[in-house]
Design goal:
By secondary structure, the protein is α/β, with parallel strands linked by helices. Helix content is 31%, strand content 15%.
Amino acid sequence: MGDRTAIHWTDATWNPITGCSRISEGCEHCYAETLSHRFRWTTQPWTLSHASDNVQCHPERLDHPLRWTKSRRIFVNSLSDAFHTEVPDDFLDEIFAVMALATHHIFQILTKRPERMQQYLTAPHTIARIAAAVDRRATHVVDRVFTNDVRRGFAWPLRNVWLGVS
């Protein structure tokens, strides 16, 4: 679950979160739910009542883009919605920290939850929490080439992150 993809508008996928729950008619024929059931990543229907079982954060996958040295357009969470209510803010902080560190990539995030996206991105302490996560992650990352000095901070909003609503 990551790396190369056949999706024509992106080069790779990165899934630090999997699972979701349907919230609109746009979710009716969700390919991610179909794949998840086919491969038994989840067994419950993608309904709100099963969200706590289906939505899973995978901290072991967070650093994957930092290992990819060749620049890529990366579809973030092709198998979920980063802004699902079951995803804690502190996990979103870690995702955004990785994206802040990996400026050689372009990250593409699509959501069906624009209200949660706006709430998260405009909350008073979000940038400070992401900066703290950047500092924690930067101390563990070695032999990486970054275009910014993470010790002096990062530009906000992140120029290498494309946000969209589907």
